[in-house]
Structures are given as structure tokens and as C-alpha cells.
Amino acid sequence: MALTNEEIAARVANFRQSNERWFQIDLSSQRLTAWEGGTPVYAVIVSTGKRSTPTVTGVFEVQAMHRTTRMRGADYDVPDVPWTMYFHRGYAIHGAYWHHNFGTPVSHGCVNVAVDHAQWLYNWADLGTPVVVQH
To answer: How many domains is the chain partitioned into structurally?
Structure first.
């Protein structure tokens, strides 16, 4: 069941009161921020899903981490996708070496990050790190 904007905002407020590490992805500003409780520790411009393949919204957690992986879909097959952190089904935060259009929604739903930034985020996070995706 999808969370309402109010429920997502309440979860964000709870994370900010904690000491927990968590990711916040703002689809409107195309920005990912890594937080430790209420303190932002790293922020980058990203590319999320385009209109026809939007990024899911809600509160998730990192479920699988791969230094590199192959990603396939109906109209793409990309080898060696670096620093991949799956957070919901086929949705992931990962490095993107095949474009430099960060700040513009261009993906099939994933959160594309420049490779060097993706490596930092991957090394900072753990399995179970919360991922908040909101407008």
C-alpha cells in the first residue's frame, strides 16, 4: 500500500530525530541527500525516472548492494552498472556512466548518480539503510 505525502513527511520527521543514516530523494529538485539523523552529510544532483517510467515514491530500504551488475529491460541492456543499491523491486540508486544529464529525469525509474558520487554513497550505506523518495 502506497504511503500518503503526509505519512512520508512523518517518517522524514522521525528520521531527522534519530541518529540513523538515511537517503532522501527529492523528485522535484532531482536531488539525493544522505543524512545522519537531522544532519545532511552529502548531496548530489541525480536523474530519476522519466514521465513514462517514473521513480516510485515512498519509504523503502536498501535491500541488495552490488559493486557492478547488469540491468536489463524491454528496451535496454546495460552491463557493468556500478555501485548499485536496490531499494524496491527493480528500482535502485546506482552510478550511470552512459549519460551526463544529471538534474533531468531520464531513467527507467532508477536513481542515476555520477559514478564517483555513487561510489561514495555505496561505501557510506549498508543493507537496510532507509530510502525516502518524495516529490
So the answer is: 1
Catalytic residue flag (residue 94): yes
Longest dimension (CA), the chain: 42
Q: CA–CA separation, 101 vs 104, rounded Å?
A: 6
Edge to edge, the sheet with strand 76-88 lists 64-73, 76-88, 91-95, 111-113
Residue 36 belongs to domain spanning: 5-134
Active-site residue (options: 88, 94, 99, 108):
94
φ and ψ of 118, to 5 deg = -60, -40
Please name the helix (run of DSSP H) or strand (run of DSSP E) that holds residue 40, with its range, or none: strand 39-45
pLDDT of 117: 98
Look up 117 and say whether it is catalytic.
no
- Among candidate residues 88, 100, 108, 110, the one labeled active-site is 110
Write the CATH number for 48: 2.40.440.10
CA 79 to chain centre: 19
Residue ranges, the chain, pLDDT below 50: none
Phi/psi of residue 66, nearest 5 degrees: -135, 130
